[in-house]
Amino acid sequence: MSTHTDATTTVPAPREGGASASRKPTAAQRFGDGGGILNVFSHGFLVLWAVMIIGPLIWIVLGSFKSNAQIGGSAWSWPTSWHFDAFSRAWDKGIGGFFANTLIVLAGSLTLTMLLGAMAAYVLARYEFRGNRTIYYFFVAGAMFPVYLALVPLFFMVKNLGQISPLLGLNSYLGLILVYTAYSLPFTVFFLYAFFRSLPTAVHEAAMIDGCSHTRAFFQVMVPMAKSGLISVFIFNVLGQWNQYLLPVTLMQQQSGSDPDRSMLAQGLMNLAVQSGYASDFPGLFAGMTIAMLPVLVVYLSFQKQVQAGLTSATLK
Amino acid sequence: MRHKKYPFIVGFLIVPVALYVLLVIWPYVQTFGYSLTDWSGASQQMNFIGLRNYTSLFGDSVFVTALEHNLLLLIVLPLATILLALFFAFMLNVGGRGGTGGVKGVRGAGFYKVVFFFPQVLSVAILSVLFQGVYRTDQGGLLNGVLVKLGLEDPNKPLQWLADPNWGLWCVIGVLIWSGVGFYLVLFSAAMQAVPKDIYEAALLDGAGRGQTFFKITLPLLWETIQTAWVYLAIAAMDCFALVSTMTPGSYYGGGPDHHSEILATLLMRNFITYGKAGYACAMGVVIFFITLILSVISLRVTRREQIEF
Q1: A66: nearest CA in chain B?
Q2: What are the residue boundaries of the ABC transmembrane type-1 domain, all occurrences included (chain B) (predicted)?
Q3: Which one, A97, A105, A217, A275, has the greatest CB density within 10 A?
């Protein structure tokens, strides 16, 4: 409830007992049950934190319309003219291409992660066979190791894969897709394992009696039933892979001058930051950031309930 | 039905397991092996040198500094993030009290949750570039701009933020807290909403104040969630590579000025990619692994309490 209602309608409640009795009458009148002070206090902090989150983001968007001199001169200047040329400069420097690279890799790695993760989790959760527990613990163990532990050998592993086919090696889409998938599997399997276990067996059994094959039962009965769990893990993986920085920096460097630039968005933005720093094109950099932020903001605002619920349940399992 | 079971199981498991073993398990195992060699990474040649990489690690003053910074992060990051997130979550869910004794969140709780959570979906590169702007050392920087505007700072002697040896690491910690609080707020909110309202109402009737409700009801009931959050934040504190390497000064993977914000991850990458000391870098990876392992075990032990059923 708002502070106003608290202050005017709340009768000093018995719960405050001794404290309100010792307080001066004027203070008691002004703040009712004492919750009033706390409410102003807590609202103050909440508003302050909200401003701290939104402020810098708006500042960046405004910055993309300013001139270079304006950005350096004062943080508080308002853009004098609303030009969009910084946006086209940022786009020309490759933001569009980095976006495309990221989308290609994420489309591949998310499809593979969900498909392979669900398949493995399903078999481990619902079928008894020798080695079942071993394979499960194998997957679970991977979830807690830091990726640094694997980094050096992983680099050479991907490099060697490139000798089998350049499509798989360093600075290749498929190589990064496979790496993302492999590192997303432990958590995906761990989470979906618990989820498939919790599903009722009756529907599945009915399908099997009707002559459904194991594969068909999985795709047409179990996957639809596990939809909510799959969505949670999917969101978790989207954010995890979207925010990935270390793996692309290590694995997606151009190997020679003639190599195509397949930087992910995060990498590309950092390169743009370095270039803009040298070229003093801060409006261009801020415009690049705005371009990179907008789709995320739109998707987040449209699905914020699912994103929050998905991430929370995925973490708590 | 039974005769086709095994081909099905093998068919479903073979690709995920093969991929996982090839790209995750096998590199993990190899790291332990390489950490015992003087391998440069560039050539095929390597010699077994036993534990010499590990002994030189602890004689390396930069490594010890980096380790200290990681330990500092391990304490400050979870503590600050969890305290702030708990405070906000309590305000949003139980903070507002209706006149009739009901328990409610403050007005606009949904809005705050949406706003606070947003940094979580921003890519780390955006965070990095954003805060390079915020921490700019001239008046164009958001923080210096605010401080000058408020008259708290002399415009001719602006604060150096990231370039200041004493402040650099704290600036990065600030960004980590800024972006992390929203997520843990939502996490704790979900846990708080699972607590039946009548527990709070009963406490109110018994004369409990806000502080008492928080410490006697909310905190114990949320203990398990806090423990989970602690482990996640501890793992995050061992990482931080992206932010430190891109925000702090220093030519190869940041860590400056003069190693004042060095962490294990940046040191590992510099030794591997720049200096070509792959074996040495692997030894660092192993150290990071053991610290993470010990931490998870300790935090699970220390925070273990009697489960409260509700």
Answers
A1: B140
A2: 67-299
A3: A105
For residue B249, tell me if it sits in a domain.
yes
Reported as type and span, the H/E element at residue A86 is: helix A85-90
- Which CATH superfamily does the domain covering A89-316 fall into? MetI-like (1.10.3720.10)
Q: Measured between beta carbons, which residues in chain B are less than 8 angstroms from residue A142? A: 20, 24-25, 28
Does residue B47 belong to any structural domain of this protein? no
Domain boundaries, chain A: 89-316
Separation between Cα atoms, residue B281 and residue B276, nearest integer Å: 9
Distances (CA, A) of A291 to A87, A287, A295, B223: 8, 6, 8, 41
The domain in which residue B228 lies consists of 64-123+165-302
Q: Token pair of B96, please? A: 């507002």
- Closest in A13, A59, A296 to B142, CB measured: A59
Which of B30, B208, B235 minimises the CB distance to A153? B30
**What 8-state DSSP symbol labels residue B161?**
G
The one-letter amino acid at B214: F
Q: What is the CATH number of the domain that holds B260?
A: 1.10.3720.10
The model's pTM is 0.83
**Hey, are the CB atoms on B268 and A151 less than 8 Å from each other?**
yes
Residue B59 maps to a domain: no
User: Could you tell me if residue B37 is inside a domain?
Assistant: no
pLDDT by position in tens, chain A (length 317) = 333 434 333 334 444 333 444 444 443 333 334 455 566 777 888 899 999 999 999 988 888 888 777 777 777 777 777 778 888 888 888 888 898 999 999 999 999 999 999 999 999 998 888 888 999 988 888 877 778 778 888 998 999 898 888 888 888 999 999 999 999 999 999 889 988 988 888 888 888 888 888 888 888 888 888 888 899 899 889 888 988 888 998 888 877 777 778 888 888 888 888 887 777 788 888 898 898 888 888 888 888 888 888 888 777 65
